[in-house]
Amino acid sequence: MEDAVTNSRVIGGIADTAARSGARAGDVALTTKIEASDFNFFYGTFQALRGVSMEIPQYQVTALIGPSGCGKSTFLRAINRMHDRTRGARGEGKLMLDGVNIYGDIDPVKLRRRVGMVFQRPNPFVKSIYENVAYGLRVSGVRDKRLIDEKVETALKRAALWDEVKDRIHKASGTALSGGQQQRLCIARAVAVDPEVVLMDEPCSALDPIATMKIEDLIHELRPKFTIVIVTHNMQQAARVSDLTAFLLMNRETRAGELVEFAPTDQLFTAPKDRRTEDYISGRFG
């Protein structure tokens, strides 16, 4: 009985956070940006994902949660084909971006210009702050210095970093910044090329609480301009930042990750439909 009360409090606390976050996914008709339909992913003979189907809406934040090894990061990286250089890795079924199959009809180079990626640990280049952000623009073929200047400034402002670094963007190396600033610099680098989708793989796992709060605030600021998909192990973070949440779980028999439940965040944390979802978010396993 005591465990039931404790679990109820845990779920209730996360649900309160979700309610306060202002998620509105269930209130309006949303345009689908990414659609998985019976999507499977393999590393050689090992199946990492099995039969994943979900519709990720445009200009919303979608969180992917679940225990380690359930395929969250595999699914995230599949969206911009980060696995292409991994021997034996392949996607099967449909994973669509604006109705076009990512694993059939899209040039991966062009895909990655539309779908940016922010990794678990900050990975700034050993270059100036300016050159870190300008890098993607130059690779994309932008040569006009005035345009690059404008886009670098805009990206740093979007990443809430401009006021902190504007006096040293040409002098300071990106690696000289604090951990939280480095992660915001990496976000600035990702958004500088104006992608349509931003993928974030546990972007706060290596950060302290203050830096984490700044990244979460930044996600809210970016939401009206980008479709964001974030992997997180932090239930409270999922509740705070996301509009929708997908819960994945490894099938004990096949060892493949499967989608258990996908719903507006406040609904999933308040009234999950699957007992396994309730067990996970209440801490009974995982």
- The whole-angstrom Rg is 19 Å
Give average pLDDT, whole number. 90
Largest sheet: 6 strands, mixed
Q: State the fourth-level CATH superfamily.
A: P-loop containing nucleotide triphosphate hydrolases
CATH-derived topology:
Rossmann fold
**How much helicity do the residues have?**
25-40%
Reading off the top of the CATH hierarchy, the class is best stated as: Alpha Beta
Structural class call reads alpha/beta
In short:
The protein has 286 residues and is of the alpha/beta class. It has helices spanning 2-20, 72-78, 108-114, 129-139, 145-158, 162-165, 179-191, 209-222, 235-241, 265-270, 275-281, and strands spanning 32-43, 46-57, 61-65, 89-97, 100-101, 115-118, 197-201, 227-231, 244-250, 257-264.
What does this structure look like?
It is a single chain. With 286 residues, the protein is of the alpha/beta class. The protein has a single domain (2-123, 194-281), classed as Rossmann fold (3-Layer(aba) Sandwich), CATH 3.40.50.300. Helix content is 38%, strand content 24%. The strands form 2 sheets. A 6-stranded mixed beta sheet has the order 6-7-8-3-9-10, sandwiched between helices. A 4-stranded antiparallel beta sheet has the order 2-1-4-5, with helices on one face. Helix 8 links the parallel strand 7 (197-201) and strand 8. Helix 4 packs parallel to helix 7 and helix 5 packs across helix 7 (179-191). The radius of gyration is 19 Å and the shape is globular. The model is unreliable at 4-10 and 22-27 (pLDDT under 50).
